[in-house]
Amino acid sequence: MGTFKAGKGLAFAAGAVSLALAMAACSSNPSDPTPGATNTGGTDDAPVSLTIATFNNFGYTDDLLQEYMDLHPNVTITHNIAAESGDARTNYFAKLGTGGLADVEAIEIDWVPEVMKYSDMLYDLSSDSVEGRWLDWKTAAATDPDGRLLGYGTDIGPEAICYDASLFEKAGLPTDPTEVAALFAANGGGWDQYFEVGKQYQAGGGKAFFDSAAGIWQAMINQLPAAYEDPETGAIIAADNPDVKNIFWQVLEASKTLSTHLAQWNGEAMANQDFATMMCPGWMLGVIQGNAPDVTSWNVADVFPGGGGNWGGSYLTVPASGKNLEAAKALADWLTAPEQQLKAMANAGTVPSQVEVLDNKDALNEAFASGDSPTKAEYFNSTTLGTIFSNRANAVTVSPFKGVNYVSVNDAFNNGLTRVDVDKSQTIQEAWDQAISEVKAIG
Question: Is residue 113 in some structural domain?
Answer without folding.
Answer: yes
